Automatic annotation (TrEMBL):
Protein name per UniProt: Phosphoribosylamine--glycine ligase
EC number, as in UniProt: 6.3.4.13
Source species: Lachnoclostridium phytofermentans (strain ATCC 700394 / DSM 18823 / ISDg) (Clostridium phytofermentans)
Domain of life (superkingdom): Bacteria
InterPro entries referenced in this protein's UniProt entry, alphabetically: ATP-grasp, ATP_grasp_subdomain_1, PreATP-grasp_dom_sf, PRibGlycinamid_synth_ATP-grasp, PRibGlycinamide_synth, PRibGlycinamide_synth_C-dom, PRibGlycinamide_synth_C_sf, PRibGlycinamide_synth_CS
Alphabetized GO MF terms: ATP binding; metal ion binding; phosphoribosylamine-glycine ligase activity
SUPFAM superfamilies per the UniProt record, alphabetical: Glutathione synthetase ATP-binding domain-like, PreATP-grasp domain, Rudiment single hybrid motif
Amino acid sequence: MKVLIVGGGGREHAIARKVSESKRVTKIYCAPGNAGIEEVAECVSIGAMEFDKLVAFANEKEIDLTIIGMDDPLVGGIVDLFEEQGLRVFGPRKNAAMIEGSKAFSKDLMKKYHIPTAAYETFDSAKKAIRYLETSPYPIVLKADGLALGKGVLICNTYEEALAGVKSIMLDKQFGTAGDLLVIEEFMIGREVSVLAFCDGKTIKPMTSAQDHKRAKDGDQGLNTGGMGTFSPSPFYTEEVDEFCKKYVYQPTIDAMKNEGRDFTGILFCGLMLTEKGPKVLEYNARFGDPEAQVVLPRMKNDIIDVMEACIDGRLQEVPLEFYDNAAVCVVLASKGYPEQYEKGFLIDGLSTFKGKSDFYAFHAGTKRTHEGIVTNGGRVLGVTATGKDLREARNKAYEATEWIQFENKYKRNDIGKAIEEV
């Protein structure tokens, strides 16, 4: 098989590496890819939103399967376009990707089908939102309705903070048109857990659990980011929680989408909050999480191509999903200043240390190859990942491996997975 992966971040590197393990695959392309993905795939200089060029490339190279890694092209309808051309593609169609593309849509869906989530209101004007906030309890959560690179969520502790948040999202358009609608949500207390699941429109099969660290600084301080690190599995995601979510969240979500005429095929990402009153949905995504993919995929036993094809063909029920009884921790090495202002172009040293090691991974996120070598080219630069027999071992190994890598303005959180010490 010839496979094309669309995207160029750490998630796509994790997908490419997993695809490269398949005995069925002879050639992998990635558009646009990055300096790390080059090790397992041929990178093609086509952007993820250049749909016509991607379709033409898939036709020209006789690609057997295209995997869409990113949210923007999914919400933009890339799957529909590929299917119209008779090309096999993994990911939800445009009308199903709306579950991530609009937070107002997903909240309304949960309300209609009684899927547990936080109480909320939706606003199309800043004036109405501000009036609502005058009598709201605090803390409170503001969410830009559309896609915002994982950064469109603000937790506000005071009315003044909320006022500033409404101004930045709705009036200053910090996230562009994503802030045309604003969802204001009750603040939930509990532990966050991420569960990714394969779906074929009617069957949903959850993968092993993970936990992300969204804030930029230690102790969950600082601004929201795309994710500063992850661990898998979450010790807080018990069998009891799993049974509850299968019954009241996962299958009801797929059934709800089917009932709405939006059959969901691909990866459904459920961001959960484990509250005192039980698990509730924080958000949905329509693709692999980043950096969740970097800890979940190395633990997966299955040939990923077999599972993806079963999803496309509507026979996921036949595939037993299996994961190794181990653990993985990913620590993101970022550019100092991320997620705001940061410099690029610094030479990265130490990547060769990872070669030939089956339990260590350096997943490239923001990197670029130059004549001098591989340099930093983004806010999140690398996802340094290690597997171990348990979370403590994996965490120790991951942090040890972060010291193998050096580049100017290197920044990381020092408490990824620290919560496991409380278990």
